[in-house]
Sequence to fold (736 residues):
Amino acid sequence: MAALMFHYSDQTETDLHAYMFAFGWGAATLVIGWLLFRAFDYMQKHHFIGSFAYLAIGLLFGYAFRWAVDRGSVNYPITWGLWFLTPQDSLNFNKWYAAGFFVLFVLFMCSVIYYFTKVRYRIFMNFLIFIIPFAIYGKEYEKMPTIFIILLAVGYILLMVYYRQLMDDENTVFVERRKSWKTIAVYAAAFAVISAIVPKPTVEADRTILENLISAEDITERLNAMLNVFRDTSTGEQFRNRASNRWVYEAVAKEPLRIKTATRSTYNFDKDEWAIQELDDHYDGTSKGTPFDIGSRMGLADAFLEAARLDSDYAGKYGLSQYLDEGLAEPKINHVVFYLLNGYIGLPQGTDMAPVPQCAIAMTDCSVQKKTARLIGGTVYSVNSQFPSNSRFEFDYSANTFFSSPKNREFIEQLDRYDYKKLLEDTYEVLEREIGPDSSDPEKARLFSFFDVDYRYYDKYLEYLLDYGDRKRIKDLADKITEGCDTEYDKALALEAYFYNNDYTYDLTYDTTGKNAEDFMFVTKTGVCYEYATSMVLLARAAGIPARYCEGYNMSERTDDGNMPRTNYVITLQDAHGFPELYLRGYGWLSFEPTVSDNIITKKNTTSTDLLSRAGVIMLIGSLMALLFAMAYPWLSHKFFILRSRKRRPADTVKAIIHRICKVYDIDEANTSKEVSAYVHESTGADISYTAKLFDRSEYGGENIDIQDKERALNEYITAYDAFRESRKRRRITNR
Fold:
């Protein structure tokens, strides 16, 4: 459960935070599991009542699960089921959904483990349970942290040993479980250490053919092509032929980000490629250098709300007065720094395009002040020359949480009731009159600038970005997917979810020659991010939502070993990504992620085998120290007992000696002191009869014990202990 909860922790936090989260739930599992096992023991003895008891427990856990899911669904755009199936690094963390997952799985795990150990001992069934965490991680192509792999394996071995059912015959000796813990612990430690440090088979790939096919110049050209994406056409090949894992950017950021470097607006079905047109390569503003604005904190909603504040007639006309006092739920503003690494990996070339984060508000700084253009597609272009190969780019951006607020969604739905073209015209009239392009207030100037671009180009959006080739099948599918959706945002979510729910497959090796997006949607259902993004763009257009195809990167890989100061993320060629952006009336452009999985390539140079080997060395040292302590513990506890006894009152010392001898000789304390004395004498020849008499006189007779009696009792204990150790050595038993 700890391994599973680590997977469902906050992906934006540090690993330490995630480990604390996971082990906290793991500790809760131990407590809940212990209580459930006691309840299951009762059910085993009372079958009829037990059935109703288990039903009651199931209903209790079901209610807890339902309660957590209901809490988590508030202001969260997707259901629990879709959340469970969706890659966690592409979602905002939902603590209530994670709690619901825990409640559901802890009952399932405890139930099946109890049944297949204490009721029906089945090693294979428990092995299937054991690999469930690996399956959860595997569905998203994640690598489980090494510590969880080791703990899972050791836990499985301990479970199987602890509940092993032995045949009752003359060769079987049954002992109490408390007497076998050392043996089991040694076995488990040895298993963990040996499995970790024993050399594993390695596979040496013959890269001769690959290296002959792809030369250094080819890789360099591909790298430049990915960086300088301001080119005429785009196809899916650049996302399939990922021969290099070169680092492209490093970043200092608080969370994973989707980064845009280019947009494409015209799709050719015959060639299966996207091409640029005026909405991709035209300037919407030019700056001599940073800082300069790119977007607004809440998209176009900022402009509509500001117009309502400035003009009461406008607010009344569009029903926005109710939002003036409290405003909207504003997303948090974050900052990100990107470092271009071409210079650090030996490439002198820079790039034409800056890496723009999703929901960018402004480019706040750049290491080189150049004439820079903000393009219509929301990208940033170096006008007269490339950005140098070691450039730094800094941006402010808003968290992608606008539609998580019910109030914000209600605001957009309110605007959607009116003629949108007329709404834009009225809003522009108010903003131009009250603010204008030369406002001294930077926030209002940014708001007007952003809205001005959208207002001027909206007709172009309708002209170019609703083209889906008039393909009837695409139109019919779009209508079917969006049937019953009330808003454009709901339609966009339905289109995005369609690919997750209809058996689409991500495959880097699939040959798409002679196929296009229509084939992907209806026939092959196999491709990479290019096919997914292209298909969602065309479906959105068929549903009446302007959409465009974008290229850039998915930044999700953390690093502690960057070239630049404080960097905590790295972006490689393998992170290259295609995704759709949809124009939602009232808000503007918003990106979506229809790709079922785009995290297939292993990005770590260190293999799991290497990690296990390193962990094995650490475990070996720890296990040896633990074993040494276990071997020394009897002697240490003996010395510590004598030391404490010197400070005790005589009567307390005699009582402690009898209990100590019972523990050392493994004598049930239900025996009388005389019986204990007789057992000790029979076992080792040691005589503790005087101590036994002192115990009876003190405990039952109420007599006082003097210092001389205490010393004699201690000497008898020491003699009995030494005799016991000697007898163990003669029998070659040294583990007590």
Observations:
- The mean pLDDT is 81.
- The two ends are 34 Å apart (CA to CA).
